[in-house]
Amino acid sequence: ALVEGAMVTFGRSGLEADLAHCEGVDKTDAVETAQFWRRSAQSGNREAMVRYATGAAFDMGSIVDLAGELQMYKRDAIAIARKAAAEGDGRAVIALASAYSPDSHIGAPPMLAQVTGVDVAQSLALFMYADRSGIRPSDNAEEVDKFIRGRIDVVRAAASPDQILWAEQQAAELGRTWAAPRLPSGNQRAFLASAQYAPPVPETCDQ
Predict the structure, then answer these.
(1) For 10, phi and psi rounded to 5 degrees?
(2) What is the C-alpha end-to-end distance of the chain, expressed in Å?
(3) Which of 66, 95, 125, 163 is deepest in the core (most CB within 10 A)?
(4) How far is CA 53 from CA 75, 90, 154, in A?
(5) CA-closest candidate to residue 10, choices 205, 188, 207
(6) Burial zone of 119 (CB within 10 Å; 0-12 exposed, 13-18 middle, 19+ buried)
(7) Is the sign of the CA dihedral 126, 80, 41, 76 positive or negative?
(8) Does this model's pTM top 0.85?
(9) Using one digit for the tens of pLDDT, what is the confidence trace for 151-173?
(10) What are phi and psi of 93, to 5 degrees?
């Protein structure tokens, strides 16, 4: 069972479900919670990888206690996100693409964007890869296409010809070497568009 401290989500209904599931379990502090998610991510648990890479493993109300864990996050977040993406988690693909996008660095960037920095070519390549190789959800494929192609248009407008050429080549390489990503459903896009954590849909909970 997961402890209440680990349930740092951006959706109220998901938080309430987690708390109900964990009723009666001893609470842990913010550092122990972050360590739990980091170790789970490092062991290859897909859900932990996405949660950790997008920063949802950290209790923002206890951020001053997390300096050591945040240094490890800075070191590991990109590699963990890319591992989840390479294994076919579409949330990781879109979160990474969004984190690299200049749009995510206006105002206060989300945690993953703070680690990645702006990289227009990487962002464009990841969005192109998602568009070309992604497995669409059955319920709203047209909306997903509209979202991804809209992001491609925005990022491409900020790219140089050399960056566009590199992104085209990199997207093709990812299509050859990464598993086809299962793209996020409609209710996940608002989180992922700003490189934040999106809880899994039920059919992915066993991954």
Answers:
(1) -110, 10
(2) 16
(3) 95
(4) 11, 13, 24
(5) 188
(6) middle
(7) negative
(8) no
(9) 999 999 999 999 999 999 999 99
(10) -60, -50
